[in-house]
Amino acid sequence: MAEPVRSPSAFEPAAALSAEVVMLKLPRSPLGDRVASALRETGNRLLPPLIMIGVLLALWQVLCSQAGATLPPPSTVVQKSWELISNPFFDRGGLDKGLFWHIIASLRRVAVGYLLAAIIGIALGVLIGQSTWALRGLDPIFQVLRTVPPLAWLPLSLAAFREGTPSAIFVIFITSVWPIIINTSVGVRNIPQDYTNVARVIRLSGPEYFWKIMLPATVPYIFTGLKIGIGLSWLAIVAAEMLIGGVGIGFFIWDAWNSSLIGDIIVALIYVGLVGFVLDRMIALLGALISRGTSAN
User: Fold this and answer.
1) Worst-scoring range by mean pLDDT, 38-47, 102-111, 174-183?
2) pLDDT, tens digit (0-9, with 9 covering 90-100), for 47-91
3) Which of 45, 71, 110, 274 is the 20 to 30 Å CA partner of 29?
4) How much is the pLDDT for 18?
């Protein structure tokens, strides 16, 4: 008796139909090529600013070396302020300190004032963003107060606190709080309606809505305000310290002006600019880490 004819595709084992997966290795560039690429990238980033600094220094040297120039050239600044540049850590007591100690004193005041501004600014921004009544009541007042120049607050704060340090901290606070309030409230008002609807559907509580919906959605706006605020804080403390006196970079600049030490003023301004840049980058880095790269750099 003849055997029935079977279809090979119907009775063939599954193993016979499976295909072998071959992992293809991507070619990797040699170590030397990668190092050369990294060096080339670093050079492309560092070379332009270094060239521009060199051009500006050369221009400064030529212009201020002319007869009748009122400002010293960079070579004279380095020569006359070399002790201040080479040893910023000296402390001879009283106000006779190196730039490091003046910068630290100013940073302490900025840290207190800015931290207060961040806490109160974010809280008020959330309130204004969430409540239409609060927006209509407080926003006109904030829009008027934020236009008052920082130093205009100093006489009022001196009258209220009777001391220089708390007055300077108040000036820092009142200067930096407005961009934090405004940007936070804009962020809260721009939360997508879909997010709010989902929160209602899954019945999130108030704290859960704040931590899971509101905070992640508004972090880029909050850090934009914080970034503007830290720059304004640093500007305000230098100006305020010129008036209140004591140890601080602002008073150091004013004291150098009264002593006709123009070179020391220029060195201090370079320090002020570098510290302000570092503060700005620190806030930007913190914002990028918390918002996972969505905040403004």
Assistant:
1) 38-47
2) 898 999 999 999 999 999 988 888 999 999 999 888 888 888 888
3) 45
4) 59
Tokens encoding 286: 């913190």
| Tokens coding 169 | 């901290």
Per-residue CA distances from 286 to 4, 120, 160, 283, 289 (Å):
76, 19, 35, 5, 5
26: its two tokens:
């991507």
